[in-house]
Amino acid sequence: MELFNTLSGTIEALTPVGAPALRMYACGPTVYDYGHIGNFRTFLHVDVLRRFLRQQGMAIEHVMNVTDVDDKIIRNAGNAGQPIAEYTAKFERAFFEDMDALGVERPEQIAHATEAIPEMVTLIEKLAAKDIAYQTEDGSWYFRLSRFPEYGKLSKKDLENIEDGARVDVDEYEKDAARDFALWKAVKGAEPSWDTSIGKGRPGWHIECSAMAMKFLGDSFDLHAGGEDLMFPHHENEIAQSESASGKTFARHWMHVRFLLVEGKKMSKSEGNFYTLRDLLLKGYRASAIRFLLISVPYRHQMNFTFDGLTESTNAVDRLRTFDQRMKKGGFPEGLDPEIAAATAKASTDYTASLANDLNTAEARAAIFDLVRAANSAADSGTLRAGNVVEILKALALFDGVFAVLEDRDAEITRAALTWAEAEGRIEEADASLVETLAFGDADIDALVAERTQAKKTRNFARADSIRNELLAKGIMLEDGKDGVRWKRK
Ligand code: AMP
Ligand code: ZN
């Protein structure tokens, strides 16, 4: 497969070097709050990449960090009156629940910053031995940028002349200025700190990714990924630290996912257009539709999230599921329609070629919907044959290996979100009819279904119909079959 490489500025083959598995590192979450849909857009595209590579037969060693100590965590945990470990554990749990809800596969290795302090200290000592790291009077350590002339090679920013000794110690800084950055922050007041050979303090943010990537993947590895905002300074700083210490190329290939905007604007709490996954679930949107929407726009395009788009995505997932069920139900005459056979083969080829071409998810999706359209009309007109269905289901499974929306876990996920909202005292944020529908438990449904069966036996059809309508209003559909009545939630 070929993937755009931010470092070279070109689309290049992505292949493992020096090991059977592709070694990749993706910057993970800072667990100081619930993840928002922009964060998940990035994690979902990394998921698309790993699922597709595996589908192509490539083994993967994927490491993701969890930033569990930083300025924001210290501030928020302090406000909540909790130790940082307790505070971050809650949001890390929530993060992985959300990842599961969105069908994101777990990386092979999850690395916590607070568990790699010795590796970070060793790395800083290595830089200090080369006089690239220096200590200031307060005991903090900085990276001397003037010692890394290649600085800026990833983001290709026109950085102002690097002024020797100009420093910055906050994680977010000016967009176009290069400054010596903090490797280690000396302890201040009652902040959490570690007592180490380079002094008492805590790591800067950038050193964590360098130390953990090299710990698990070696000095040089195949691919590094993250959102576009991380390109500068975070990834530039990772390169500077790692390559200065090892003298080798850090990551060969860099993948950056472009930002998600909401209704054309940068997402922000003050704009009122800031959405976590949980916000959307509580509004009644389905996890599958959110996944499908967030991955349908190719990762190198900016994505504009809209509620119309989410509704469209909900319908698209429904169409796929209905089609899948129609094919699985079968009942088509024996044989093979050559036209549909050709359309099926084309859909599979186009799907694979699209993803192999810099992960063009929009084209991959279009290829499968072309097939859905052709097969549905062949089924309608009676030309679809059982032999076609076998191949169609294979094409659909191939597609779903990456898009992963056919299995319906939506109601279960929404129910879990409501349980969480209840426990957090936030249930009033949930859509009222959703609460009513989901509060209606399986036992309540079974009882009504049994009453309806009884009503039908006694020829009380009015009551039977009113029960069906009552259930339908709650989003529960009944299917009368040979072996009784089955129900499902819409
Ligand atoms: P954070 O937890 O803020 O460190 O972010 C986790 C990941 O989400 C990083 O890879 C960020 O680059 C990415 N990210 C943050 N905001 C957005 C956004 N609006 N669109 C896409 N990715 C984002
Ligand atoms: Zn990172």
Please give a structural write-up.
The strands form 5 sheets. Strands 6, 7, 8, 9, 10 and 11 form a 6-stranded mixed beta sheet that branches. A 5-stranded parallel beta sheet has the order 5-4-3-12-13, with helices on both faces. The longest helix has 23 residues. The two termini are 38 Å apart. The protein folds into 3 domains: 256 residues, Rossmann fold; 139 residues, Isoleucyl-tRNA Synthetase, Domain 1 (Orthogonal Bundle); 80 residues, no CATH class. α1 packs across α12 and α5 crosses α6. The model has no long low-confidence stretch (mean pLDDT 94). The protein is globular and about 90 Å long. Helix content is 48%, strand content 17%. The protein is built from 16 helices and 18 strands. α1 links the parallel β3 and β4. With 490 residues, it is of the alpha/beta class. The site of zinc ion has 3 residues, from loops.
